[in-house]
Automatic annotation (TrEMBL):
InterPro entries: Cadherin, Cadherin-like_dom, Cadherin-like_sf, Cadherin_CS. Gene3D superfamilies: Cadherins (2.60.40.60). One of its GO terms (cellular component) is catenin complex. It is found in: Membrane. GO terms for biological process: adherens junction organization; calcium-dependent cell-cell adhesion via plasma membrane cell adhesion molecules; cell migration; cell morphogenesis; cell-cell adhesion mediated by cadherin; cell-cell junction assembly; homophilic cell adhesion via plasma membrane adhesion molecules. Keywords: Calcium, Membrane, Repeat. PROSITE patterns: CADHERIN_1, CADHERIN_2. This is Cadherin domain-containing protein. Residues 3-83, 84-138 form the Cadherin domain. SMART domains: CA (SM00112). GO terms for molecular function: beta-catenin binding; cadherin binding; calcium ion binding.
């Protein structure tokens, strides 16, 4: 954050308010640099709304209007898919034709589906080949 009014002579100070100001985010009152002081978790809170303002260091009178901005937390692949109704039990009649559907499972992932592939679920089986196969997408 930087104000055009700030000539670098120390007369301007930067102030930060809003969600997480001082507890999660800090601002260097001299430079306007904003830093996160803790690790952010998108699943706990996907964004923070903050307000910043440049004020006269002596009088605390604003030298510019307050600016509002949103810090959007970008997701990482920190959640594994979870099966909703597991464990699943299924049966298949003896001598069933190839391709008989035995069971359909469903898993979800708490990661952000709009950012990267972190929330994409792909199904596979670890035991049972060649007798069973799985459709990777469904």
């Amino acid at each position: 954050l930087h104000s055009d009014v700030d000539k670098g002579d120390g007369k301007v100070k930067y102030v930060l308010t809003g969600e997480g100001a001082t507890s999660i985010f800090t601002i260097d009152e001299n430079t306007g640099d904003i830093h996160a002081t803790k690790r952010l978790d998108r699943e706990a809170q996907p964004y923070y709304t903050l307000q910043a303002q440049a004020v006269d260091r002596v009088t605390n009178i604003p030298v510019e209007p307050r600016s509002e901005f949103v810090v959007k937390v970008q997701d990482i692949n920190d959640n594994e898919p979870k099966f909703l109704d597991g464990p699943y039990l299924a049966g298949v009649p003896e001598m069933s034709p190839l391709g008989t559907m035995v069971v359909q499972v469903a898993a979800t992932d708490a990661d952000d589906p709009t950012y990267g592939n972190s929330a994409r679920v792909v199904y596979s089986i670890t035991h049972g080949q060649p007798y069973f196969s799985v459709e990777p997408k469904t």
